[in-house]
């Protein structure tokens, strides 16, 4: 069998390998020997072990062997679950998971991708452990057990492709045996991520005074690259690349994250810069202008913030007669990603773009479609806040001071009316999209305000997804779908599309069982039915909203990852579908300045229109590029998640303790998981960390329940009892600990007031 190696419990140095792809239970690789020097993400070949060596799955709700460190590979077109950097340090008492909405304002395929490496049984332990499990039959030989009680085990026999960067951040220390010859030559590198092996590094690569003053470097982060790992050794050989700085500080931690995930943040090479125009200011030549459709009459750009490098769509609004629709009620608009030389999209400057243009009715019915290369001159550069203000105040007369500079050829009133027109059309498009069966799972997304001088987080808040976001999302989805159809029609063997497989069947069945047990009527038959159930089941009160957030998180877990692929390598067209969007064809066209997949799609679109020469790449070569894009998207998303974890941990350290309401997501024997509603993070709370006289775990019907008996605050008071079960609302405190970037959640004592 072949597939990606993914990790389980890092402190036991275990790993899981997800095979087969039909949603059944993963294959378990137990220990560093069975892992055979493979690292997380590697594509490996495994040999199944005999049935008598398969793992017996324990059905109880025990906290033991369930605390995996979950590494996200969530792309931005879904919303994801992510872990704090602290959890990768191998502390068996802190398998915390942080939850963040991965809404990307430039790429809104909002269903939900699941962490492909989340353990199937861990998911049930973390949140779905409510069933009266069938007892494992008592037999002396595991081979006699039914398959449902067994998990296959295997050993890695070959690494097909090393996906892991073989770089890690960590600490150096002297070897324990001072009398050994190795002590005189090497130090021990201990990675922060315990899935990476410890490594011997040469003392010659260490700081000159390290041997004399090792304590000076006890909190110093280093980058180490694994250069060798012998088959018969638990330790690798490494080479120290550089010293980063003190652990827990933003700059060294950020550089470590980027290096570990192979993100090149160095300056562009002279060779690359030579490809840019050398004479500035750059202007569009008359020859180039003649090849393009002139859209400079009325274009405005809309983007998240002035510093946001992501391109968001320009729009053309104009009346045009057509058919029986009155001239005043027919609109024409265009979405235009910029070319490389045009990334700033500053107003009142000519810029090159590649456009999709539609003629639509006010109800969003598309009457005509056009693709082509264009030139624009934006009359205003609006932020989301500007557009949102116009949408919320349609009758307001905006003064020039309330908006960015506007071209003298156009008025603020014109721009405001254009925004309102687009908003109304987007509302119709969105309504129809969900009628047609799309799914969107909105999780809480944490955003930060930073000190302008130090760059330190000084505030955080849940990002608000508003009508201006939805406006942009609808037109981007529309453009991406339109381009997908165009390039697939033209190049059925070479089109680069994006597919989203349906949820993993086993995890989905677990979730269906859970909903049934807690009395929730959720229809899982399709993406659309799931969306409808989630949005129509709950009320608008605080408790209902919190419960919806918890379930949104749970519903994300069976969802698989969206992938780029070349159409020529998949013969079954039904596999092209995008589950969350519920459409047959989808791709990425709208962000070529930050995603290489979009560049390939632009080239395919250009060739399909006869603008450029035909694509000469074979389907196998395009598939290799698609796989590389998948790898880098996974890495970039993981870096984004870890960066958020880093900033939040620093924020807790600098501004904590932090208090918030939380809702219980899962109950175990000696702990329970909560979703911290104010910050969108998930934490595990341990009973033995609370001032309790005792606690008791039981099943009430089919639901797990913990009863906590709090110590009296004063001798004359009685003990306070507190029941903890799924969906219980509690008050928690997030508090920084002594270890860098580590924080814990503590349950606040319940009030005794009647």
Automatic annotation (TrEMBL):
Segments forming a coiled coil: none
Residue ranges with Basic and acidic residues bias: 59-73, 83-92
Domain named RNB: residues: 292-611
Region listing for Disordered, in residue ranges: 59-92
Matches recorded under Gene3D superfamilies: 2.40.50.690, 2.40.50.700, Nucleic acid-binding proteins (2.40.50.140)
GO BP terms in the entry: miRNA catabolic process; mRNA catabolic process
Annotated GO CC locations: P-body
Entries under SMART domains matching the protein: RNB
Main location as per UniProt: cytoplasm
Xref: InterPro entries: Dis3_CSD2, Dis3l2-like_C, NA-bd_OB-fold, RNase_II/R, RNase_II/R_CS, RNR_Ribonuclease
Signal peptide: none
Annotated compartments: Cytoplasm
Domain of life: Eukaryota
Family annotation (PROSITE patterns): RIBONUCLEASE_II
Family matches, as SUPFAM superfamilies: Nucleic acid-binding proteins
Keywords: Cytoplasm, Exonuclease, Hydrolase, Magnesium, Metal-binding, Nuclease, RNA-binding
Molecular function terms from GO: 3'-5'-RNA exonuclease activity; metal ion binding; poly(U) RNA binding
Protein name from the UniProt record: DIS3 like 3'-5' exoribonuclease 2
Species assigned in the record: Pavo cristatus (Indian peafowl)
High-level lineage: Eukaryota, Metazoa, Chordata, Craniata, Vertebrata
């Amino acid at each position: 069998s072949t597939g990606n190696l993914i990790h389980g419990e890092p402190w036991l140095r275990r790993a899981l390998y997800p095979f087969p792809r039909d949603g059944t239970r993963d294959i378990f690789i137990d220990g560093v020997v069975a892992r055979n020097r493979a690292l997380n993400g590697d594509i490996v070949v495994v040999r199944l072990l005999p049935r008598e060596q398969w793992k017996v799955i324990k059905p109880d709700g025990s906290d033991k062997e369930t605390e995996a460190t979950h590494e996200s590979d969530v792309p931005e077109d879904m919303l994801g679950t992510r872990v704090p950097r602290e959890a990768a340090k191998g502390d068996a008492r802190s398998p915390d998971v942080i939850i963040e909405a991965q809404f990307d304002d430039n790429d809104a395929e909002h269903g939900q991708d699941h962490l492909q490496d989340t353990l199937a049984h861990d998911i049930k332990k973390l949140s779905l452990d409510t069933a009266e499990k069938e007892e494992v039959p008592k037999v002396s030989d595991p081979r006699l057990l039914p398959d449902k009680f067994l998990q296959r085990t295997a050993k890695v026999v070959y690494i097909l492709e090393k996906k892991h960067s073989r770089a890690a951040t960590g600490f150096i220390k002297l070897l324990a045996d001072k009398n050994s010859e190795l002590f005189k030559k090497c130090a021990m590198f201990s990675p922060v991520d315990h899935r990476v092996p410890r490594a011997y590094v040469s003392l010659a690569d260490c700081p000159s005074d390290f041997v004399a003053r090792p304590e000076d470097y006890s909190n110093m982060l280093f980058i180490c690259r694994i250069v060798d790992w012998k088959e018969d050794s638990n330790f690798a050989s490494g080479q120290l690349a550089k010293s980063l700085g003190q652990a827990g500080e933003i700059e060294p931690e950020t550089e470590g994250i980027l290096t570990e995930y192979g993100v090149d943040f160095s300056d562009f090479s002279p060779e690359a810069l030579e490809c840019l125009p050398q004479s500035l200011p750059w202007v569009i030549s008359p020859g180039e202008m003649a090849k393009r459709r002139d859209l400079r009459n009325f274009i405005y750009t809309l983007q998240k913030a002035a510093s946001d490098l992501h391109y968001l769509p320009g729009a053309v609004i104009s009346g045009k007669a057509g058919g029986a629709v009155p001239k005043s009620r027919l609109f024409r608009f265009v979405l235009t990603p910029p070319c490389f030389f045009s990334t700033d999209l500053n107003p009142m400057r000519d810029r090159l773009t590649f456009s999709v243009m539609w003629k639509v009715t006010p109800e969003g019915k598309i009457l005509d479609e056009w693709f082509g290369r264009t030139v624009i001159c934006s009359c205003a550069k609006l932020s989301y806040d500007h557009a949102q203000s116009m949408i919320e105040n349609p009758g307001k007369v905006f003064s020039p001071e309330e908006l960015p500079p506007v071209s003298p050829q156009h008025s603020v009133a014109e721009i405001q009316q254009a925004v309102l027109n687009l908003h109304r059309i987007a509302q119709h498009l969105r309504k129809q999209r969900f009628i047609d069966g799309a799914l969107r799972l909105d999780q809480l997304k944490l955003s930060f305000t930073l000190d302008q001088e130090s760059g330190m987080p000084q505030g955080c808040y849940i990002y608000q997804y508003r009508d201006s976001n939805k406006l942009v999302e609808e037109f981007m989805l529309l453009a991406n779908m339109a381009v997908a159809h165009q390039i697939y029609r033209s190049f059925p063997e070479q089109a680069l599309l994006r597919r989203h497989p349906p949820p993993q069947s086993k995890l989905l069945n677990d979730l269906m069982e859970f909903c049934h047990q807690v009395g929730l009527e959720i229809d899982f038959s399709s993406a659309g039915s799931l969306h409808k159930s989630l949005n129509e089941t709950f009320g608008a009160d605080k408790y209902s909203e919190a419960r919806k957030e918890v379930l949104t998180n749970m519903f994300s877990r069976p969802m698989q990852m969206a992938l780029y692929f070349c159409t020529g390598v998949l013969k079954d067209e039904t596999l092209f579908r995008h589950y969350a969007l519920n459409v047959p064809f989808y791709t990425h066209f709208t962000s070529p300045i930050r995603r290489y997949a979009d560049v390939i799609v632009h080239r395919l679109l250009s060739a399909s229109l006869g603008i450029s020469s035909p694509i000469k790449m074979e389907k196998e070569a395009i598939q290799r590029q698609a796989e590389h894009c998948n790898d880098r998207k996974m890495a970039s998303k993981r870096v984004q998640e870890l960066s958020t974890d880093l900033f939040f941990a620093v924020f807790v350290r600098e501004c904590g303790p932090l208090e918030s309401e939380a809702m219980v997501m899962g109950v175990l024997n000696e702990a329970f998981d909560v979703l911290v509603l104010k910050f969108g993070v998930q934490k595990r709370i341990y009973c033995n960390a609370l001032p309790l006289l005792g606690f008791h775990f039981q099943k009430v019907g089919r639901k797990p329940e913990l009863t906590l008996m709090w110590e009296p605050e004063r001798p004359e008071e009685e003990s306070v009892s507190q029941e903890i079960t799924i969906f219980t609302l509690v008050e928690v405190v997030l508090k920084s600990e002594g270890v860098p970037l580590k924080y814990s959640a503590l349950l606040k004592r319940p009030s005794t007031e009647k």
